[in-house]
Amino acid sequence: MPLTLLLRLPPSGGTETEWQSVDDDGNPTGPRQRGTLELASPIAATHRVVALVPATQVLLAEPDLPPGSGVKLARAVPFALEEQLTEDIDELYFAIGRRSASGKTPVAVVSRIVIQGWLEMLKLAGIEAYAIYPDISLLPDNPAQTVLWLEHDRLGVRRPGALPFAVELTPATEALVVAGVIPDPNDAAPEPKPLESAILYLTREDWARVEDEFDGLAEQFESLKIQLLSDGPLAWLARELPRNQAVNLLQGEFAADTDYGAQWRQWRLPAILVGVLLAVHLGAEFLQIHQSNKQSAALDAEIAAVFASVMPSETPTDPRRQMESRLAQIRKSAPGPQNFLHALEAMSVALAAQPKSSIDSLSYHEQTVDMKITASSVDALSQLSQSVGRQGMSAEIQSSTPVAAGVEAHMQLHIQPARGKP
């Protein structure tokens, strides 16, 4: 899985931002860095980028919406939030989250001009975001305490089981009153507001600025715990990424174009391994085919050699098929292949009596055996002919030629049917 780069976009009018590389569990894999977006671009190219935007420019709500999804639900959202909106609906963009078990559907609302500005800012820096969340969306949900996040003049608030929201106001006491975290001293309600238990997250610098103010607010809380963010808020917010249920602003017309790129980075190593295995498999198959072709070629050469010795008078075009055809003809010849075997037996008996005689070649066709014979003399050739005749076959010498070893002759053996048979 690729690492995630958690990137905070600068507020309106700002140029400096910060980023943090984290693993799948939200743990930092390097130091927090600060600078312009262009400086983050080389790191973003190898990470899955999640951008955080100032929550004061995003409205988070959970309106009562009818059952459904898709276009039907999207059309109902603006009307469900109509009383909370101060701008023209056509100038706003609505991102819809996943319906919770309680039946509530989280919705994030932002000006179209604002989100277009964020995307243009990323594009100019050469960064493609996988998701964009309001930064307070990563505030942890504490089931027993109200979570407070104070950063400069902004106070983020998340009560147990509720959506977070932000108040931008100073001093901190007034922000706490407006957020309803502490009682309003000017409220003349007969029933005093119950005090809240809270945990406040802030940097050392912010704590040094508001420490005296909070010392005077201790009685306004049921309990108040201070948690200093020594490494800044990014590493703290990153811990919520694995279980994050925030609404991704990149939907519909602003849907991220980098989903395929992120998936490719995620599966790049397995894909490379599969490619290597496939190449090895194809290489092995090619080698096996190559070896089989070599063996087949060697076998064809042997067949051609046998063909040339057995049927020297025929031109080899397809030795394998020619020999199969000749054997088939022999098997079909009447009265059967036993006649050919009888002729061979007769010649073997005759040759046994003439050890200096030999058969150079032979062929069989229609009960006739054509042979090329070398004998030691004409007399020996005549004795071969007579010996074959005594075994029920007729031998006819077609021609004879004197050679250094004696006489070379062309002899034909004619297979005669047995007596008493038509």
Largest sheet, in brief, is: 5 strands, mixed
Quote the average pLDDT: 84
The fold-level CATH name of the largest domain is: Nucleotidyltransferase, domain 5
Give the strand content. 15-25%
Number of helices: 10
Q: Give the name of the CATH architecture of the largest domain.
A: 2-Layer Sandwich
Please, how many domains? 3
Helicity, in percent?
Answer: 25-40%
Which spans have pLDDT < 50 for at least 5 consecutive residues?
418-422
Question: What letter string, H or E per element, gives the SSE order?
Answer: EEEHEEHEEHEEEEHEHEHHHHEEHEE
End-to-end Cα distance, whole Å, is: 91 Å
Q: Care to count the β-strands?
A: 17
Characterization of this structure:
The protein is α+β, with helices and mostly antiparallel strands. The protein has 3 domains: 1-138 and 240-257, Nucleotidyltransferase, domain 5, CATH 3.30.420.380; 140-232, Nucleotidyltransferase, domain 5 (2-Layer Sandwich); 333-415, Gyrase A, domain 2 (2-Layer Sandwich). Helix content is 36%, strand content 25%. It has helices at 37-44, 70-80, 112-124, 172-178, 204-215, 233-238, 259-310, 319-332, 337-353, 378-389, and strands spanning 4-8, 17-22, 33-35, 48-53, 59-61, 92-96, 107-111, 131-134, 146-151, 154-158, 165-168, 196-202, 221-228, 358-365, 368-375, 393-403, 406-415. It has a 5-stranded mixed β-sheet. It is rod-shaped.
